Amino acid sequence: AQSVTQLGSHVSVSEGALVLLRCNYSSSVPPYLFWYVQYPNQGLQLLLKYTTGATLVKGINGFEAEFKKSETSFHLTKPSAHMSDAAEYFCAVTRGSYIPTFGRGTSLIVHP
Amino acid sequence: EAQVTQNPRYLITVTGKKLTVTCSQNMNHEYMSWYRQDPGLGLRQIYYSMNVEVTDKGDVPEGYKVSRKEKRNFPLILESPSPNQTSLYFCASSFKANTEAFFGQGTRLTVV
After folding, report:
1. What are the C-alpha distances in Å from A108 to residues A12, A13, A44, A75, A81?
2. B38: Cβ–Cβ under 8 A, 6 or more apart, which residues?
3. Separation of alpha carbons B1 and B61, rounded Å
4. Which of A10, B35, B65, B68 is deepest in the core (most CB within 10 A)?
5. What residues contact residue A76 under an 8 Å CB cut-off, 6+ apart?
6. A37 pairs with which residues across the strands?
7. CA Rg, chain A, in Å?
8. With contacts defined as CB-CB under 8 Å, which chain A residues touch B100?
């Protein structure tokens, strides 16, 4: 069975600090991995994705994520948080039949 | 502009009164899906469609119906809404199931 675990429902950082949002997955087949962001009162939009090839993936707004097969992880990072990064972040992984499964989300809080 | 359009954005209804939430995409995508978002539970898939006239249940299909008579439209039908269907609903589409998903703005449904 496919599953996605996002560690921490809330992550709080100071402006300028490193952002680290954790995502672990289980998959019986090579996965396709995604991070989406949801700003207040909006739908989700794609931040970045891993399909094949380079394991370090760069996305929009300075975010990046590294696919680590040995750790079954796809953690999202950003070197320096900005107030505008405050949002809900979702990790998603495709199932064996290519249907995406979403994690429960992590709310990023950025303090001035 | 490429987009997924949901209507209505907000809806308050009474228990048992049939309702339909519409979803339309203008990107000629094959794959469409419906999710509900509840606090602490993340996104849960209700139904999905791989193409016209092809639909299947997601993780939480009870109490919902869908149809896919045209490629661009994928309405969500609640035949007899109940208070436990109060939620934020999202429609999404993608070229294929394992490619980037484009989300609508969401429909906040309250059933009293």
Report:
1. 6, 8, 15, 14, 10
2. B44, B87, B88
3. 31
4. B35
5. A19, A20, A21, A23, A35, A47, A48, A63, A64, A65, A89, A91
6. A45, A89
7. 13
8. 34, 46, 49
Q: In this complex, is the C-beta atom of A97 within 8 Å of any C-beta atom belonging to chain B? A: yes
Q: What is the pLDDT along chain A (112 residues), one digit of tens a residue?
A: 558 899 999 999 999 999 999 999 987 666 789 999 999 888 999 999 998 888 899 999 999 999 998 899 999 999 999 999 999 999 998 765 557 888 999 999 999 9
Interface A-B: count of C-beta contacts within 8 A: 56
Tell me, what amino acid is at B15? T
Task: Give the contacts of A18 (CB within 8 A, at least 6 positions apart).
Answer: A77, A78, A79, A80, A81
Beta-sheet pairing, A106-111 with A10-14: parallel
Tell me the helix, strand and coil percentages in chain A, rounded to 5: 10, 55, 35
Amino acid at A20: L
Residues in chain A within 8 Å Cβ distance of B103: 36, 43-45
Structure tokens at B13: 């209804």
